TrEMBL record:
Catalyzes the dismutation of two molecules of 6,7-dimethyl-8-ribityllumazine, resulting in the formation of riboflavin and 5-amino-6-(D-ribitylamino)uracil. The keyword Repeat applies. GO terms for biological process: riboflavin biosynthetic process. This is Riboflavin synthase. Residues 1-95, 96-197 form the Lumazine-binding domain. InterPro entries: ATP_synth_asu-like_sf, Lumazine-bd, Lumazine-bd_dom, Riboflavin_synthase-like_b-brl.
Amino acid sequence: MFSGIVEDMATVVAVKQYGGNMDFTLTCSFTGELKIDQSISHNGVCLTVVSIDEDCYTVTAMEETLDRSNLGMLIVGDKVNVERSILMNGRLDGHIVQGHIDETAECVDMKDADGSTYFTFRYRTDKEMARRGYFCVDKGSVTVNGVSLTVISPTDDSFTVAIIPYTREHTNFHDITIGSKVNIEFDILGKYIARLRHFDN
């Protein structure tokens, strides 16, 4: 489990594809503290550390993860938002994040807000997905590339978030432009409520 509070931006140093899987080798400020089998969120995707070599570590993404996320688009030199799993005795500064990406969304608009920036994202949806909780609610939570954010002005297939200068500087939001693909995870509480309503009907 994660909180959506990004710890660092890891740099991709190698990408290797074999079969339907891809290995990503990265380096970040806490590489020396990692252990094999540890779960790390990469752009919101929970991946397991499979090897560590000096100042780099490697994780593997399977085909289903690559199909559902933007990880397959990563190249050497890209910056990835990373977060270690939360400690149960710590503060939950963001919201409950599973690290299970629901789908990608496309940035369709950016507006300056006196130094901050409003980003609008559009995602694929249909009635069945909405019944399963794949939607946003005003002032609810959503995770974008692993960043816990508050939803503004949601529609049936889009939402807006406000990014303060600190967040834009310290996450890969500074690389997002119109047309960029991001990973999104909808609020797990909303998914459970939607599922319960399905059984009540």
